[in-house]
Amino acid sequence: MVERTDAGQAPNPLGEVAALVDGGDMDCGSGLLLLITRAMRRLEPGQLLGVRSAEVSVVTDLPAWAELIGHDLVTEVAESPDGPWWFAVSKAGKPAQAATVFTPGERLPVGRRLWIYTNFDCNLACEYCCAESSPKAAARRFDADLATEVFREFTAQDGREVFFTGGEPFMHPDLGALVRAAGGLERTILTNGMIFGRGARRETLEHLDRDVVLQISLDSATPELHDRQRGAGSWNRAVDGITLARSLGFRVRVAATLYDEDPKGVEALHRRLDDAGIAMPDRIIRPVAHEGFADKGVHVSLEGLEPEPTLTADGAWWHPVAVTDPYMRIADAPLPLSEVFGVVRDTLAVQDAAAQSGREVFRCA
């Protein structure tokens, strides 16, 4: 098995290893930690994981990672004084931190919540879309049969909540089947609220169970900001969508995405939502993540982003805002969930052990 993030074909000076990860110039604060965690989970105790890296911080961080977990660093070889560097790490029989995981704050237990990207095409091309969705985007639709398998495993592992997002989920022709497959779980659909008012999409909406929550995007109290960020006329149609969904008996959450939380703008939005009868717990104001289409916003990284495992038709990711970031990819397929959640738990265990010991092994340049 060879896992690569770099196409380099340098000769392996380590000898025979069970798996080889080529991390290119990634550091342990980004994609390398996920790669080596995933690869190590697939090995038997005593087998060797080979790691190649061109990032100088890994010379310090990878031995610290091995020590924290209880693995043995067997070999370290430098191709030159300036790298790249090669490491061989022997998998421990029992990870040292497996029984004692430090949990800071109120972290949501891994496996309780799951995100599904139903599709990536959208009727809008919002300027800050973290998923790079638009009318021109490839649909990459999540298959209904795959969803059935996912939710069967998710329920068996005591999962509770599922969030359907996109793209615009109501552009998926089998959205109803996807949502039904998650029956018995707490279900929320994230939507711009613009296209479910008529035709087949209206039928999909009306046939949804009324315990399904609709989270509709509304960025401002008046059209100016919302339309500037999402497209002309989108504010009025979103407001109409909120009104329609509530008239049909759905619980509606309203989510605003803002570059800068202008106090006056936020206050005005709250007043409008007061008038609309949207309860305070059903209001979400969130910053723009510097991902996808956004050319500015909050920087996200493995070390600063609490995990919310996210599935797409072609893989699994650390968090829904990071599905265009190859460094945040957990797996190359959405199943098995046991591996997806296992990689997340193992990564958190290392982060928590590092926090307890005062080490810094996850630097993001």
Labels describing this entry:
single chain, 365 residues, alpha/beta, Translation Initiation Factor IF3, TIM Barrel, 2 domains, 9-stranded mixed sheet, 5-stranded mixed sheet, 14 strands, disordered N terminus
Question: How are the SSEs placed, and which strands pair?
Answer:
Layout: E1 2-4, E2 19-22, H1 31-41, E3 48-53, H2 58-69, E4 72-78, E5 85-90, E6 113-117, H3 144-156, E7 161-165, H4 175-181, E8 186-191, H5 199-207, E9 213-217, H6 223-230, H7 234-247, E10 252-258, H8 263-276, E11 283-287, E12 310-312, E13 315-317, E14 329-331, H9 337-357
Parallel strand pairs: 1-2, 2-3, 6-7, 6-12, 7-8, 8-9, 9-10, 10-11
Antiparallel strand pairs: 3-5, 4-5, 12-13, 13-14
Briefly summarize what is shown.
The chain has helices at 31-41, 58-69, 144-156, 175-181, 199-207, 223-230, 234-247, 263-276, 337-357, and strands at residues 2-4, 19-22, 48-53, 72-78, 85-90, 113-117, 161-165, 186-191, 213-217, 252-258, 283-287, 310-312, 315-317, 329-331.
Describe this structure in words.
The chain is an alpha/beta fold and 365 residues long. It has two domains: 2-96 and 345-357, 2-Layer Sandwich (Translation Initiation Factor IF3); 113-334, Alpha-Beta Barrel (TIM Barrel). The chain is built from nine helices and 14 strands. The chain has helices at residues 31-41, 58-69, 144-156, 175-181, 199-207, 223-230, 234-247, 263-276, 337-357, and strands at residues 2-4, 19-22, 48-53, 72-78, 85-90, 113-117, 161-165, 186-191, 213-217, 252-258, 283-287, 310-312, 315-317, 329-331. The strands form two sheets. The chain has a nine-stranded mixed beta sheet with strand order 11-10-9-8-7-6-12-13-14. Strands 1-2-3-5-4 form a five-stranded mixed beta sheet, covered by helices on one side. Strand 7 (161-165), helix 4 (175-181) and strand 8 form a beta-alpha-beta unit. The radius of gyration is 22 Å and the shape is elongated. The chain starts with a strand and ends in an 8-residue tail after the last helix. The model is unreliable at 1-9 and 97-104 (pLDDT under 50).
